[in-house]
Design a protein that fits this description.
35 strands; ten-stranded antiparallel β-sheet; eleven-stranded mixed β-sheet
């Protein structure tokens, strides 16, 4: 055995072996097989009528030859072994071709069989795009009938990457058949099926989607840079992307700071001096790992495809961005314009699906319509189209199973707008104009032919608003040609309307072909206060930004010293957060004091301390936590700066002795926890609460009953959860003082 030989003999055996291994390694490096990206495979579809780009890797300076359908081109790889060849454009053909790629130093040429030329669409988004045929409606029959060999599907493997990648993971094109179609993107497949039937050409689907993802991970830095509203996001993304100037600069700063610390630490080692902590790794240098990080999915699942000619994109996403409001339009613009810039195919078609109504837990009912509004705004970008789906919903299923109609509508948009076919069922009616009428509004839609309803009933889900209307009110609607006439007995002078403005709205209004009308609003919407009855009779006394809460209360506006002789007091609380939306509440009640200095935050300095019944309580709200009440309620107030206990010492009807609610007992030091609460006694409901204001961001603030153990928000420490919070206090002066 070798280990038993003398050292000088052992070397005679070892050295020749090392030389042989090195030689083999060198030989393998030089003669590495030529390689294509993984999305070049048997059964693929190439885009017709566009130059065909083929690229890959081989040995440095290797001669590469590519041939397809009688066309042959040669090129040499660069010093990194990369190569790219462009073949002439071809027209669509059902005839299968062979794509051959060979390198003069490679041992194994590439031969891709059954390659078709037709129409290629990129399908992207979150779960409703990723949702498969097997998981959608009527799966057994659809899969059994899926014998469409001219439809091909490529699933891009999930991959989140902090930097742009050159290739996708291991995957292959699949021919549509009952054995393969179950895993296809359902929305994409049903679109492809109709396109193939109408165009009679091969259809290729590149399915690059990932459930639960936001739009930001699919967006390139190039796109972000083009949208001023995303400046901060772009800067942060560039800092976190290795290789960028921003990342290099910030890394150099961190390295320099760390080097200085190391020098300091060495100088103090062995001494009695304390060494300060080393610099922490900057948060802004964290890599963009994970499917939720900006650009991460573009880097791993879109960037590798750039350069492969496509006809356009089908997009189905928005559920995870539903709280973005109009900012979603800015993000969508960055996505679209970024992809188009990088692909260098001009404004290629971008057709997308407006997400469907859905419960979305405790979301504000108006949050989803604001996203719909942003999705509709995307139509202002060139060469875009939107599928409306509020007629094919499942309110308790975020993945509506009817992907057949979704795909059909995408295909119809493409047939009309991309392929120049006349398709009746292509575009949903869009809002065109609004005209004022005596006691009503006329809403005009851009549609050829007369509007109608699916159930032959009057149009539903229209609302009107005007000054003093107490917010939006249901409207009666009448179709007149391509217009809808709106009136409401409770809105005498409407200034604006909205349609389908609720997350659960399933309106019945359609165009002449049966396609639904999307949610829309238009006109001058009065402020919340302007829309309240008799709001012009109230005068502002206090205005307080609740972000400024603390031991000392400093009002932004304080007119208490000039206000006298009032008969009603009104509290207007506004709370805004991403989770809960924009909550507004106005509570007015018969005056409980004649001193305006005692109607604000009950600090020790105000000398305000009230635990008593309050009468003629009126409530106006935009949140279901506290429904608007058009009749006077009997209420209870708890205003004091003291600590308080659960004991119902005042015997408030229905209040508890075991938990904090609307029947608590103040006690102890005057400058204590503090309570500012008004309640609906009969409804056992907190109308609003501001407690423990001395704690600032850890104060308790809420509208309606708290979801915690104590309905009056005691101990919630939730003020920091609101991005914006504001309290304004009004009085209605007596007639002789106005």
């Amino acid at each position: 055995m070798l280990e038993m030989l003398p050292l000088h003999l052992r070397a005679r055996h070892v050295i020749p072996g090392l030389i042989l291994l090195i030689g083999l390694f060198h030989h393998q490096t030089v003669l590495a097989d030529i390689r294509l990206p993984n999305f070049f495979s048997n059964h693929m579809v190439l885009q017709q009528k566009m130059p065909i780009k083929i690229w890959g890797w081989a040995n440095p300076n290797e001669l590469v030859t590519v041939s397809l359908a009688g066309n042959t081109r040669e090129t040499k790889t660069n010093s990194d072994g990369k190569w790219q060849i462009e073949l002439p454009a071809m027209t669509a053909s059902k005839e299968p071709h062979v794509l051959r790629v060979n390198g003069n130093q490679s041992s194994q040429p590439i031969e891709l069989k059954d390659v078709l030329v037709g129409e290629v669409w990129l399908c992207s988004g979150q779960s409703n795009m990723e949702w498969s045929v097997a998981a959608s409606g009527n799966p057994d029959a659809e899969i059994k009938a899926a014998n469409h060999p001219l439809i091909r599907h490529l699933k891009v493997p999930r991959n989140a990457s902090p930097t742009p990648q050159a290739d996708i993971g291991d995957t292959r094109w699949e021919v549509c058949s009952p054995a393969t179609a179950a895993s296809f993107t359902a929305a994409g497949y049903y679109a492809a099926r109709r396109l193939q039937e109408e165009l009679d050409v091969p259809i290729g689907l590149i399915n690059s989607s990932w459930g639960g993802t936001r739009v930001e991970p699919w967006t390139s830095t190039v796109g972000m840079q083009q949208v001023p509203a995303l400046k901060d996001l772009h800067q942060l993304t560039m800092q976190r992307t290795p290789g960028t100037a921003q990342h290099i600069q910030r890394m150099n700063e961190h390295v320099e700071a760390t080097a200085k610390w190391l020098d300091l630490a060495r100088s103090k080692t062995g001494t009695l001096e304390i060494t300060p902590p080393s610099p922490a790794h900057p948060n802004e240098l964290r890599p963009l790992n994970g499917s939720g990080e900006p650009t991460a999915l573009y880097n791993g699942m879109i960037h590798p495809l750039v350069g492969l000619p496509i006809r356009g994109a089908f997009w189905y996403q928005g559920e995870s961005n539903r709280s973005d409001g109009m900012m979603y339009f800015e993000k969508k613009k960055a996505l679209i314009e970024g992809w188009r810039s990088i692909w260098e195919q001009g404004d290629f078609p971008f057709l997308f699906v407006q997400i469907a109504p859905f419960q979305y837990g405790n979301d504000n009912p108006e949050t989803l319509p604001e996203l719909w509004e942003a999705q509709s705004a995307t139509l202002s970008l060139p060469n875009t189209g939107m599928v409306v789906t509020n007629d094919i919903t499942t309110l308790n299923n975020i993945h509506p199973p009817n992907k057949q109609d979704v795909g059909k509508r995408l295909a119809n948009l493409a047939l009309q707008d991309v392929y120049g076919r006349k398709v009746a069922e292509a575009n949903s009616p869009e809002f065109k104009a609004m005209e004022m009428m005596p006691g009503g509004l006329k809403v005009i839609f851009d549609t050829a032919g007369e509007l109608k309803t699916r159930d032959n009933k009057p149009p539903s889900h229209f609302e009107l608003i005007g000054v003093g209307s107490n917010g939006f009110q249901p409207a009666t609607a009448k179709i007149v040609g391509n217009s809808v006439i709106l009136k409401s007995p409770t809105v005498s002078q409407p200034t604006a309307f909205r349609f389908a403005w609720d997350k659960l709205a399933e309106p019945n209004l359609t165009g002449p072909t049966g396609l639904p009308v999307a949610a829309v609003r238009h006109g001058k919407i009065p402020t919340f206060m302007e829309s309240l009855p008799d709001s012009d009779q109230y005068k502002l006394v206090y205005d307080l930004d609740l972000n400024k809460l603390g031991r000392t209360i400093t009002y932004d506006i304080d007119r208490a010293s000039t206000i006298k002789n009032f008969d009603r007091i009104g509290y207007f609380l506004e709370l805004k957060s991403q989770a809960l939306g924009d909550q507004k509440l106005f509570v007015s009640l018969a005056a409980f004091t004649d001193d305006a200095k005692k109607i604000g935050i009950p600090t020790p300095e105000s000398a305000a301390a009230f635990q008593q019944e309050v009468k003629e309580v009126e409530v106006f709200s935009n949140t279901s936590n506290v429904p608007t009440s058009k009749k006077s309620l009997l209420g209870n107030m708890e205003f004091w700066p003291n600590n308080y206990a659960e004991e119902n010492a005042a015997s408030v009807p229905g209040a508890s002795d075991q938990r904090f609610d609307f029947g608590d007992r103040p006690y102890g030091v005057e400058d204590g926890y503090g309570s500012m609460q008004i309640h609906d006694t009969q409804g056992k409901r907190t109308l609003f609460a501001i407690n423990h204001w001395r704690q600032g961001v850890n104060a308790d603030i809420g509208i309606g009953n708290s979801p915690g153990a104590n309905s009056d928000w005691t101990f919630r420490k939730n003020a920091k959860n609101y991005d914006q919070k504001r309290l304004r206090i009004y009085v209605r002066q007596k007639a002789d003082e106005k």
